[in-house]
Amino acid sequence: MKTVYHKSDSRGFADHGWLKSHHTFSFANYQNPERMHFGVLRVLNDDQVASGMGFGTHPHRDMEIISIPLEGDLEHRDSMGTASVIRKGEIQVMSAGTGVKHSEYNKNKEELVKFLQIWIIPNKMNVEPRYDQISIKEGEKLNDFQQILSPDPDDEGVWIHQNAWFILAKFEKGISKEYQLHDPKNGVYLFVLKGSAKVGDQNLETRDGFGVWETEALTLEATEDSEILLMEVPMDLPKM
User: Which residue range or ranges hold the Pirin N-terminal domain (predicted)?
Assistant: First the structure.
């Protein structure tokens, strides 16, 4: 088993006034050659958007973009004609493919929006752009692993063009469970949304990240009531 530990305060940080963003991996003005990606997990941004503010229309292509709201409501509009609002307890996915433009705004007058913006390098280029958004039935599987993303359109959660699985673990203090990887060529990047946990001898606090690979399984233990996002992704970058 190989591991990498990213303490929460080691992340890059950008303060644009209306936007405060922590970057687990190199992004925009934060460039760290040792923090470029974890396998095909390219971006993990922990964003906070002020009321009435947001990201103006901008383009993407050949990337799987996942948004997971943690607080507040985020309005989304794109060049595919989508107009929606995503809220805590939902997950949004957009396959940029051949190209898409979108905007994201916090339309609330008094409430911050906090959300994770995650980019996954796809295994197929130049696909037709698409959008999906679902409720993830938050807390439905207390003290168990709850799948929210996979490669299979017919499986639980949203799907993307990559051999990846996202799992939510909402564990009460003292709960310990083994997670079996779907593919031995994959690794798992754990991100602690709330609380604290352990993987082996590694203690993890809120907003810490921990990557594990070259293993078939790992054991996650909550050392207090916790919410953890597990992102199982291929470790080898696709050949372009």
Answer: 11-120
Tokens of 69: 């709201």
What structural domains does the chain harbor?
12-138 (2.60.120.10), 139-234 (2.60.120.10)
Q: Which of 121, 81, 105, 102 is nearest to 236 (CA)?
A: 121
* Residue 60, marked binder: yes
Q: 104 among the known binding-site residues?
A: yes
Among candidate residues 101, 28, 84, 20, the one with its CA nearest the CA of residue 53? 20
Q: Is 214 annotated as a binding residue?
A: no
Note the pLDDT tens digit of each residue in 55-93: 988 999 999 999 999 999 999 998 999 899 999 999 999
Torsion-angle region of 97 (φ positive above 0: left; ψ -120 to 50: alpha; else: beta): left
Q: Are 104 and 54 in contact (CB under 8 A)?
A: yes
Is this structure's pTM higher than 0.90? yes
Q: Strand 158-159 relative to strand 54-60: parallel, antiparallel, unpaired?
A: unpaired
Burial class (CB in 10 A: 0-12, 13-18, 19+), 34: exposed
* Spatial distance between the Cα atoms of 29 and 17, rounded to a whole number of angstroms: 15
CB neighbours (10 Å) of residue 207?
A: 17
Tell whether 6 is in a known binding site. Answer: no
